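Translate structure to sequence.
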């Protein structure tokens, strides 16, 4: 029997479907993990032991978002939950002060154990995944047959990122990005980028924070 108090964990991602998928992963571990579900787009506003930063729809180069979590005095430790295990990304995350770098291929029991290790004061980097096949959770487009990487590339396209920036941020070759785009387009039945963006907007690829009351979201420094 687990006698320690559960670790308080905030789930951070702008996509409601992603956060809900993580909630399901932790459902059988309520005695070990107490989840604080965030409304998409809000910062952590109550004290938590661990902030689990899900990387879906966020390029690793998007460090200001992670830095904001690290600076939040209500967050004990920050863990990145991702498929991208490029050594340079791991090293940068550790230099920023991240306490864990965990693979999305971890089964729920291993993810919970790693979170407990981080809470105990250890820096945990899980083994690099051999393939991108998340063990749990969810992502936009999954029900339409999109793979995780196809879905993430489509999310970034929906947000207006060009192929070169997607390739650089995801540490993929331009040809790999084009391959994911072609296969995604076939699955969703579009032929042009504008059609893909329109499809993405209709199928949950615009981040959920755009539906919040403006008072709940800090203004974008680029748009005021």
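Result:
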């Amino acid at each position: 029997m687990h006698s320690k108090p559960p670790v308080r964990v905030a789930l951070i991602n702008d996509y409601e479907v992603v956060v809900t998928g993580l909630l399901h992963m932790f459902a059988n571990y309520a005695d070990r993990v107490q989840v604080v579900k965030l409304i998409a787009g809000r910062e952590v506003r109550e004290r938590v032991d661990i902030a689990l930063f899900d990387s879906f729809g966020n390029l690793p180069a998007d460090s200001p978002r992670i830095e904001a979590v690290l600076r939040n005095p209500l967050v004990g430790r920050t863990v990145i939950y991702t498929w991208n295990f490029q050594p340079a990304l791991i090293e940068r995350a550790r230099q920023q002060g991240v306490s864990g770098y965990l693979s999305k291929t971890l089964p729920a029991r291993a993810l919970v154990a790693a979170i407990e290790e981080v809470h105990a004061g250890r820096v945990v980097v899980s083994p690099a995944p051999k393939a991108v096949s998340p063990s749990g959770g969810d992502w936009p487009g999954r029900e339409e047959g999109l793979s995780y990487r196809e879905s993430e590339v489509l999310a970034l396209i929906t947000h207006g990122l060009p192929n070169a920036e997607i390739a650089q941020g995801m540490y993929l070759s331009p040809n790999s990005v084009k391959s994911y785009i072609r296969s995604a387009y076939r699955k969703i039945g579009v032929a042009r980028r504008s059609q893909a963006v329109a499809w993405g907007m209709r199928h949950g690829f615009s981040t959920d924070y755009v539906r919040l009351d403006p008072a709940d979201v800090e203004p974008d420094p680029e748009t005021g």
